[in-house]
Amino acid sequence: MLRMVPLPRLADEDQRLDVIRCLSDHSLMLGCPATLSLDQFRAAWQSGEFNRVGVTGSGGLFFVTGQRGGDKVTLATTRGKAVRGFRDAGKAIAVLHGMGARHIDVDKSNWTPDQVGSEGKRRPDTALRQQRAHAAAAHDSWFRAEVLRSLEEADASDANWIAHDDVKHAGTARRAVWVNRVEAGRKPG
Q1: 109 in the same domain as 21
Q2: Strand-strand pairing, 52-59 and 61-68
Q3: Pairing verdict, β 71-75 and 85-86
Q4: How many domains does the chain have?
Q5: Which domain holds residue 31?
Q6: pLDDT tens-place string over residues 98-131
């Protein structure tokens, strides 16, 4: 018996049929894959196909799983059928929470803390990229504050305006002092 399920928009009709086939009562006989993409997993959860959902630890990673009868389905990566592993159990739980799951089973029986960090993709450039982004944001914030302060100072009624010719003469005098120090063998400063 096939159940009516609100399905997400999928790239093609074959993917849509795979989801429908996987959600049918005879999914094992039809060769349903043991993994579902996030959209497929969400559709199965929201339609009530899963008895329970949970996070299972294995090695140094955590995996999002759904239980339907005796069948266990695991969340896959978006582009393909590879199982999606999380280094942080909190992120895996957040995915389920985002789907609307409020009762989540957590199984850490096969999780080994000493393997944490040894599995999964490493992104050493991420920390550096984040530091640069934060530094750029801090500089931008500082620069905007300086511009605003300068504009407020210039708009104040007691602003002290200096004529261009006076600034030019003062600059010429400073330059002459520097040139004299350099010619005398001393550093300008």
Answers
A1: yes
A2: antiparallel
A3: unpaired
A4: 3
A5: 13-115
A6: 888 888 888 888 877 776 665 555 566 777 888 9
Could you tell me if residue 32 is inside a domain? yes
The model carries a pTM of 0.47
Do residues 60 and 117 touch, judged by C-beta distance below 8 A? yes
What is the DSSP annotation of the chain? -PPP--PPP-SSHHHHHHHHHHTSTTTTTTT--SEE-HHHHHHHHHTT--SEEEEEEEETEEEEEEEETTEEEEEB-SSSSPBPEES-HHHHHHHHHHHT---EEEEEEEE-GGGTTTSS---HHHHHHHHHHHHHHHHHHHHHHHHHHHHHHHHSTT-----HHHHHHHHHHHHHHHHHHHHTT----
Residue 7 lies in a domain: no
Contact 84, 63 (CB under 8 A): yes
> In degrees, to the nearest 5, what angle opens at C-alpha 166 toward C-alphas 161 and 169?
150
Contacts of 85 (CB under 8 A, 6+ apart): 61, 62, 63, 119, 120
**pLDDT by residue (tens digit) across 21-51?**
444 433 433 344 488 888 888 888 888 888 8
